[in-house]
Design a protein that fits this description.
By secondary structure, the chain is α/β, with parallel strands linked by helices. Helices cover 31% and strands 19% of the residues. It is globular. Bound molecules: guanosine-5'-diphosphate, 6-O-phosphoryl inosine monophosphate and magnesium ion (MG).
Length: 417
Amino acid sequence: MNKSIIGLQWGDEGKGKIVDFLSKQFDLVVRYQGGNNAGHTVIVDDVTYKLNLIPSGAIRGKSCFLGQGVILDPEHFINELNSFKRKIPNPVIYLSSNISLILDYHKKLDKINESILIGESKIGTTAKGIGPAYQDKIGRKSIKLHDLGNEKNIEDKLHNIKEFYDPILLKFGEEPVNIQANKSFLSKIYEDISGLIVDNNFINENFNNKNILFEGAQGALLDLDHGSYPFVTSSNTISTYIPIGSSINSSFETLGIFKAYATRVGNGPFPTELNNSIGNYMAEKGFEYGTVTKRKRRCGWLDLVSLKYSCKINNVKELCITKVDVLNELDQIKICKSYEGKLFNEINFSDSSILDKLKLNEEDFVIFEKWGDLSFLKSMEDMPLQLKKFINFIEDYLEIPINLISFGPDRKETIVK
Ligand code: GDP
Ligand code: IMO
Ligand code: MG
């Protein structure tokens, strides 16, 4: 059976850790959207892997595929692959020939975009060129992997790109698009990665009747269409995008993953945010610093209202909760169960102006007591009663079982129910 691992919050739920943990049972691990805005940290026996584009299944030596929904910064990919090879020598990575590329002008345009937004309206992107590169894909200007090796095609595309973007780049003091430099760069890239490029139909042709694990990037609340627009990423992060982003014609079941609290990097509404000592405590104990941009993540209480919405839009069948250990020492742990008394089906989660105005009150929260140290945990039987109550409440509210519990960053610190 194929499975997808989808983040249900604003990213950084621990997808990388759980994909690595589960990948043992799968033949192929697939990324189907996003780019190197993703940062997935996996720790195995004291070795730390920081991955942006390489699927986390590569750590166990699983075959990996990046589908056409991924947006690829080729320079970043090659550097990441080279440094990964110093730890795991022979990763098996395939790239769909339909993948669109992020090039230097996309990163400049990302910065320009952010620079013209004022104050609270800044998105706080990762500045990796993600939005402008997806814009080019939709705008039919992308240079794709299948263009590499076809000099005429690349030259024609770069000519149009230059005509279109030079006025903006020059207006903001950036260098214009350099056709020759981009051509040379792309021909060098082609030498380096041509052996990894495969037909877009790769999975259907080679992994039919095999077990495939799909690794989501970002989170459902950052989805371009379903998230808090415009404070979203530029791809569809939810499970329904998998068939397009990976080009598969077989089905899968979705495991939704969430932290025992909530975090968000960058701007945008965050109804349960804690701008106080508890939020700071979560950030320090949970080491909530972005893998990609090193920014401190905003922290707050677990929000079941948005989580229920995320479960619905992703058709989640089972859940994984991570980072329960981060809350160990707190005397009181809260969960948000309503927004000013309203439930998930009364809220438009893609309208940031509604979410921004929310003022949650005491009745919107349920309180749980401290559960203490978890370092001794081996199975569900050892679990402290207070943590069991916390987990049971979430399962009852969401009407979905929590089958995996993560209580530390290492692969070993995971319990299967
Ligand atoms: P992803 O983007 O969803 O893969 O998540 P990130 O890797 O960006 O962020 C999750 C962070 O929490 C990483 O530093 C993980 O090593 C760490 N982590 C994952 N699960 C747990 C857990 O259960 N407890 C603790 N303390 N850390 C965890
Ligand atoms: P993983 O896979 C957390 C956020 C950025 C910004 C918004 C748009 O590690 O969970 P972008 O550069 O994508 O145009 O930025 O999305 N963002 C993430 N936040 N985890 C991520 O990925 C993210 N990828 C993008 O901070 O708010
Ligand atoms: Mg991350």
